[in-house]
Amino acid sequence: MFENLTNKLEEIFSSLKKAPSLNEKQVDEGLRSIRQALLEADVALPVAKKLIENIKPKAIGKEIIRSTTPGQMIVKIVYDELVQLLGDQKSELNLNAVPPVSIMLVGLQGSGKTTTAAKLAQYLEKNNKKKVLLVSLDIYRPAAQEQLKILGEQNSLQTLPIVKDQLPNEIARRSLSAASLSGSDVIIFDTAGRTQIDLSMMSEIKELKSILNPSEIVLVADSLTGQVAVDIASEFKKTVDLTGIVLTRADGDGRGGAAVSMKFTTGVPIKFLGVGEKIENIEIFHPDRIANRILGMGDIVSLVEKASEDLDQDKIKETEENLKKGKFSMQDYLSQLRQMKKMGGMEGVLSMLPGVSKIKSQMDNSGIDESIINKNEAIILSMTKKERKNPKIINGSRRKRIANGSGTDVATINKLLKQFKLMSDMMKKMSKGNQKGIGDKGIPPELFNQLK
Hints:
single chain, alpha/beta, Four Helix Bundle (Hemerythrin (Met), subunit A), Rossmann fold, 3 domains, eight-stranded mixed β-sheet, 22 helices, 58% helix, flat
């Protein structure tokens, strides 16, 4: 997300940082470039104009012009204004009501409401320790209720039993009674969508609101639609008292215009981002962390949080102990590959690291294949325990056997073994206290070439 905008802003800031001092003309040119970058990222024109208006008086102040690091100071000003624009601070779901607390999801057809309902349910059960009941009020889209039921069954989430030919208001009343009887803390309602906003859709939502008295009415919008998503949010805000927004498919949105524009345009906070198809692919919207990502400063806090959730702590400890002893086996490498898969692969990890545009450029230009992780996993699983412990014993005949077992070829086996040797040497150096990082030039060429 924000990849295009981030790359352009990094270029602008890079030129500003190189200047030993800045005059008003240089600042004006930089701000013009920032404005253009925002518009190209599909940020709404009023939003881009307001952001520049807020930045300019601070950026041309004497303290900036005379600063020893004027470029850095401008980055800080832009960061502060972006955070304000995005919502200042995270906005959590309001669950402070007498249970069962009702949450209504609204939006157009195809925006991802049903999947988001299941994601939110799992999130609340895992992180807030709430018992959640999922309810589909969509009697119009074929198999909509069945879809939510299946998602519930697949992820051990409770769903309201389907009763044929019931109307949405009847389902809503039945769900309130069912939730009270089952002791549910939260009910998430997946309302019906339409291909466009219409009078009947809004009338139904208003009626349901009067029945359910929801603590939250959350719009689910597709971030890939850019400015259209912002316009839809504005329309819903006029008709229904929206309390929050979930932006879906944010992982596929290279521009990010909807996220940047939404809060300013509607006054409604973005609460979550949908960042993939899996049930766990949803994350809280932190304005300060998002501003960091937009400005190419990464999101180390979110990366650490994700790591603490996804990574197997016992495996990490075991690998650490081996490293302290100067050992790094193919089994350790397999564990690392699996942990990386859990965190979204190389792209998922890199997206949260600061200043990774050069590394991403290397990856894009050199044709690194993310599927290499799966191939390497298959190869290691085709090795014996003895071979994983000591890869040096893998001779020609063993390589042929491993290639047949993993569905690859000997050339791919050779590439993995070279890659493992480089990793092993690097790990041994780190275990001795030499923890030199990647540096400005990106991934070391010898290791980088092995990732292709």
